[in-house]
Amino acid sequence: MRLGVDVGGTFTDLLLQDDIRNITYRAKTPSTPQDQSIGVAAGVKLICEKAGIAPTDISLVLHGTTVATNAVLEGKGARVGLLVTEGFEHTLHLAKSWTPGPLFGWIVMEKPDPLASLEDTRGIPQRMDARGNVVRELDEARATALIDDLCNSGVEALTISLMHSYANNAHERRLRDIVKERFPDLQVSLSSEILPEFREYDRAITTVMNDYVRPIMTRYLSRIEGRLVDENVNSKLHIVRSDGGLMSAAAAADRPVHTVLSGPAGGVTATAMIAKRTGLNKLLAFDMGGTSTDVSVIIDGEPTISRSTEVGYFPAKVPTLDVRSVGAGGGSIAELSELTSSLRVGPRSAGAMPGPVAYRRGGTEPTVSDANVVLGYLPAKLLGGDMDLDVEGARNAVAAIGEKIGLDPEHAAQGVLDIANEVMLGALRVITVQRGLDPRDFGMVAFGGAGPLHANALAALLGCYPVVVPANPGVLSALGFLEAEFKNEFVRTLIGAASGIDDNQIWAGFSELADKAVAWMDEQEVAEADRGVTYSLDLRYEQQGFEVAIKVPPELVENAKGLDRVFDDFHQTHERLYGVRFDLPIELVALRVVATGATPPVKESPPESGTFDISSAIIETGRGFFDGAWVDTPHIDRDRLAAGARVEGPAIVRQYDTTTVLLPNHYLEVDDHGNLLIWPTAKGE
After folding, report:
1. Where's the Acetophenone carboxylase-like C-terminal domain (predicted)?
2. Residue 134 predicted with pLDDT over 90
């Protein structure tokens, strides 16, 4: 019994997989922003009731969380102290001297305060060079005085980030020893352990961010583990990393910066599995929830891994799935601009509380979900009848804003959806058109509570088909957590011309990192048969500012063979990514080893029965607003459809965890995997 838990801005999604009977159970419960663990505990209780099991039967809990992300975005993290090399106290303020535009951007930019203030920063007398040689010995007496002054001032966590500590971290380790001797309860992070790579700002800000969210994450994980114990769940808790891997709760408490994109990672992982199972190797992941929409690209069945991301204004140099997020979701509020009196949607959201007007939780402002209710796209009851919607309240709220701009409720609601779709379309264009990819070469996997409501309209705008609606779209991210594997990355900076570095130095570096990877897998109790280790080199052309990760075949590492094959791959990869290769020397930047621990796959459960007679699958016929007019629209029970069944649009397909809108001039088919595939009617003629 494995349980995936995804906490969103509006709903907490749960998916329970019974591996013995190959049965999947799903549940959605309102999120509790004041304490997310309350909603998780309520969801665990609900899904156990649905499955008819005791909480003690659950063997593993996999959890995606936005706690770290929200702490940074909302500026509600801990007070962090920072120790740097003397003379580099302004590292976080100088950053990369970047502004969001030329002169005008510089004029209007409101630069945020760093996550560690200058008042909480101390310069330590010491210095290493880029090769790890001691240039200036650590002045321990002065360092101790500075540490006492800083730690007695009330900081909640401490970051130690010294120049070139990636090459030699002896001084960082000594400073930590001094802190632990004098302030044993203070949480301390070393940049040489969190990010042992060159580029001092990236290393410093990533480590400071780790400490900024660390006390909050520690408290949250303590609460959720306590709630699970109260519900008699005795299994281990694992947290999803930003790169789609898994880590123990203890590891997440120690290095929470690796969870900054934990939430969206599950959906991308699940989309990659769908690509492999269906043979649709080019897919766009479209995850629309209550607060935001996350999009990503899957090529050749694999998601794109980025070596850095941004949380608000701040970069975090940690491995992440390449996800683009926008503030458009089912709870996004529709309002009039104060300057232009024009209609806009989001990024302000009604969230879980008070939520959309239709949810009857006290919301008064019209949202995207309310617009869907007005147009007849959302039925009056959701979650299998457990949730009654206030249809009249939603209509009144949308009518009120429509009256201000001279539109009736239907056209005002359509305007809200059109604007929300354009916001989400912008994110999809960024990950396709702006990267030289033609969206018409891709299909789209629609998931999240609101994804299937909007996916057909977005596909029609972009021309990307088929739209794939998985069997459990509303809880697909939770399913992705069950598909995830344990993962951790180990890095060693090694800069120099590839032709001038002794190959034996590279093989020795890989061996050292592999030993660390094995030790980590031992800590995570990964079974021997489930272990995997991959190798890669970060390479670039001489004088370039950024590098490309190139895989190194294991047999080369094991046999200490030459690297010509890897360099050839670099030239080809550079040309594929940027359209050009250069006749320049190659420079080595870093060695990477990724350790993985496989988990059992979630076996597919395609429809075993059902009907091809669509009329027998109709729940009711209601009114739907399509192409500017009301149309009698069948509401179809998805669970009654057999594999191979075909539905002509317009139609509303209903299931427990989401609702799918099928537009006119489109049709859907149920494939052998249980997915709904939506195509333009012209394609199937």
Report:
1. 505-673
2. yes
Question: Strand ranges (DSSP E) for 137-229?
Answer: 157-160, 187-190
CA atoms within 13 A on the CB side of 108: 5
Structure tokens given for 507: 């093989």
Q: 3-class DSSP state for residue 413?
A: helix
Is the distance from CB of 537 to CB of 480 less than 8 angstroms?
no
Give the DSSP per-residue string, 296-356: EEEETTEEPEES-EEETTEEE-S-EE-EEEES-STTEEEEE-TTT--EEEEEEE-TTTT--
The answer to whether the beta carbons of residues 530 and 598 sit under 8 Å apart is yes
Query: Domain of 531?
Result: 486-597
* Residue matched to tokens 């995936």: 4
Q: What is the pLDDT of residue 191?
A: 96
With a CB cutoff of 8 Å and minimum separation 6, the contacts of 231 are 41, 44, 45, 55
What gap in Å lies between CA 478 and CA 489, rounded to an integer? 23
Looking at the 3D structure of the chain, how many domains does it have? 2
Nearest in space to 64 (alpha carbons), one of 227, 252, 273, 277: 252
Q: What is the pLDDT of residues 299-331, one digit of tens each?
A: 888 888 888 888 878 888 988 888 888 878 888
Q: How far apart are CA 313 and CA 301, in angstroms?
A: 31
Listed residues 216, 235, 263: the one ending a domain:
216
Last residue of a domain, one of 562, 597, 632: 597
First to last CA, the chain: 45
AA letter at 675: N
The residue type at 253: A
Strands 2-7 and 60-64: parallel
